[in-house]
Design brief:
This protein is an all-alpha fold. The chain has a single domain, classed as Ferritin (Up-down Bundle). It has 6 helices and no strands.
């Protein structure tokens, strides 16, 4: 073997230096679905992904509202509401993952960039500052209602299209979680005194 042959046969030393500032081509556009062997038509999967992405965007905004209100709670029930806001935020974070994974399972692209989410959400933007506690709770309830109205309609239509999996995610996860959280919030807005005299 010649020196040149030995040099080319010797493996090159590996480097631990990361390859920084890489750019790549977009390999799947938002709003498209790939063909996956899931037993549903392109049109069914496309429709489900569109509806799920709306729910996903609104759920990401609701999660952010819960975190904001968790930090900004005030008054005599601060501690209880502070903990409740964080609990609900954690549950919404689980829903975000569940819905996003369903979109990916159908071959779609889950909305993830917060700037894109802000463009398509149906949940109204809150003020940048601090609202009174009842107003914060009411804002959360309105966001829940927005998600629930959309999820009920989407679940029924996905069921009609034969997408049982998406119907199940919307009913078993999105609707049930949001209904329960809305109940807990609404009970904090009942006008009862904190202390009886």
């Amino acid at each position: 073997m010649t020196t040149q042959e030995r040099a080319s046969a010797t493996p090159k030393p590996r480097s631990s230096q990361p390859w920084l500032h890489q750019k790549g081509n977009e390999i799947q556009e938002y709003g498209t679905v790939r063909q996956l062997p899931v037993g549903m038509s392109y049109n069914t999967r496309m429709y489900s992904c569109q509806r799920l992405n709306q729910v996903l965007a609104d759920t990401q905004i609701l999660h952010a509202l819960y975190k904001k209100h968790h930090w900004l709670m005030r008054g005599q029930t601060f501690y209880q509401l502070h903990l409740l806001m964080d609990k609900h935020a954690d549950e919404q974070a689980e829903l975000i993952d569940t819905v996003a994974e369903r979109i990916q399972t159908l071959g779609g692209v889950a909305i993830g960039d917060p700037r894109h989410v802000a463009e398509i959400t149906n949940v109204p933007r809150p003020p940048n500052g601090v609202e009174e506690v009842p107003a914060m709770l009411s804002r959360l309830l309105e966001a829940h209602e927005t998600i629930l109205e959309d999820a009920h309609d989407a679940a029924a239509r996905c069921q009609e299209n034969g997408d049982d999996g998406t119907n199940d995610v919307l009913v078993s996860d999105v609707i049930r979680t949001n209904e329960l959280e809305a109940w807990f919030l609404a009970e904090h807005l009942v006008d009862t005194p904190l202390v009886h005299t």
